[in-house]
Amino acid sequence: ESYILGANVGIGTTNPDGTLHVHTATGGSITPSTAADDLIVENSADGGISILGPDVGWNSIYFGAPSDNDFAFIRARENYSSNPIIQIKTNQANGSIEFATGADNTMLQLVGNKISGSVSSTGSFGRVIADRYLGVGTSATLTDSGNSAQLVIGGTAPGLTLHESDAGSNEKNW
User: Which pTM does this prediction carry?
Assistant: First the structure.
């Protein structure tokens, strides 16, 4: 059954918590954030929203504003060069994608062709694990060369400096 309560519409509920509330079962004593209460999907077990389309079409959620109706989006496609793909993307040249925890504590930031482990310093990772190819300071395309791994380092000399962990004064430059 559907109910209209003032300006709100409820499907499966007589007391919708937002503009459109799709209620399969009660998820518990919870009130949606007023920052995101235009569409509420509630269930007592797994809840979800399906965006369905053909194999060769994009299924998307777009974000817009008066100055730009598609400044960012999330989209997925089943058959993209014969492989599934999901994209999280901004349409702005100066846009960024951030993964954050807590009170906007940025853990990973993607800006242009740079990756940062924090807002205050670029490249501040404790370690980087690469499957077989790792490029540092280079835009060279890394290609499969059999079963061997590749480390490509570019930039001005020295390209690679190794420090001993227990004696910082011993180093070798290449």
Answer: 0.61
